[in-house]
Amino acid sequence: WAKAEGRGRWAVYDPERSAADIARSALAANLPAALDRGEFVLHYQPIVSLLDGSMVAVEALVRWQHPELGLIGPDRFIGLAEETGLIVRLGAWVLRQACRDAESWRRAYPEARLMVNVNLAARQADDPAIVETVAEALQRTGLPAELLQLELTESAVMGTAGESLRALHQLADLGIRLAIDDFGTGYSNLAYLRRLPIHCLKLAGPFVEGIRGDGADVVADHRDERIVDALVRLAHALELWVTAEAVETGEQAERLRSLRCDTGQGRWFGPPVPAADIRRRLEGEEGAQGTPPRLPEQRAG
Ligand code: C2E
Ligand code: MG
Ligand code: MG
Ligand code: MG
Questions:
Q1: Which tens digit of pLDDT belongs to each residue from 158-205?
Q2: For residues 264 and 287, what is the distance between their CA atoms, to the nearest angstrom?
Q3: What is the C-alpha separation between 20 and 26, in angstroms, rounded?
Q4: Closest C-alpha to ligand 1, atom 35
């Protein structure tokens, strides 16, 4: 017998069970209490217009401020939270906190019309209470529905049938927007584009990475660039917005702009930062010369 890390749990000793597995389950076991103790924080990453450089939205990205391990990224605990089902409660917290922050920015800088993007795990999209959870977050915080955009991956969307498909339509009926996250890396059965009320495609990092602007793309026969070109045309033909993810260089931003991509997100435009930094950036944009940043007219979807 061996005592698993923390919380007095006993498990049959298994030499195959790696130290990493044990650390993983210890982390999972601590998630619910961490949520109750308020150890999760949201950072926000700017999504910027490729036309005029204004910040049109921010994506809420959750982090765990662990008392001993420091700031832990979502890749280390979102999967665990999905497996244990905690994602429903954690996701509800993320939604409400993101709406609360977005509403406070809206009150301070109404002209900016800054949208907030919130990631929705597959398990959340399947939760029968999701429409109620979203409606309640909007109602409690006062954030107008059109300033909230939910990001779902292709696989999360593909799994939707019956009830949850109806839920996505009900969410769109609330007036919020839906975006497909990491577009192009999932199962990509494009049939869902016909039957879902989607407003935006977020082009996955790997396609953007292939656009180098330093001649390196010549080696790849400009293939990534052609894919991006085709996906942007597809999106615009369907009257959807396109955001390029993981934009890391000015050359990429410039190429994406000439390919008519609408918005970009990535280290080039700024990393995920605490809410206070977003407020400072809004203040800077308001003080800047020219017209205040505006959200482009909403397209039909
Ligand atoms: P995602 O939604 O695709 O988020 C974008 C990720 O790309 C973020 O990682 C962001 O920090 C990272 N990124 C930003 N700029 C760059 C760049 O220039 N280059 C590259 N290569 N990457 C960049 P992060 O914050 O570690 O989040 C990872 C994933 O965790 C997210 O991917 C999302 O799927 C998930 N996640 C984060 N927050 C939440 C949440 O509140 N709920 C749910 N369900 N999932 C979340
Ligand atoms: Mg990360
Ligand atoms: Mg996302
Ligand atoms: Mg993404």
A1: 766 667 788 999 999 999 999 999 998 877 678 788 888 999 999 999
A2: 22
A3: 10
A4: 74
User: pTM for the complete prediction?
Assistant: 0.90
Q: Which of 119, 178, 268 to mutate to test the pocket of ligand 1 (most atoms within 8 A of CB)?
A: 119
Q: How far is the CA of 5 from the centre of ligand 4 (A)?
A: 33
pLDDT at residue 23, rounded to an integer: 85
Q: What is the pLDDT of residue 20?
A: 85
Q: Identify the residue whose C-alpha is closest to ligand 1 atom 34.
A: 119
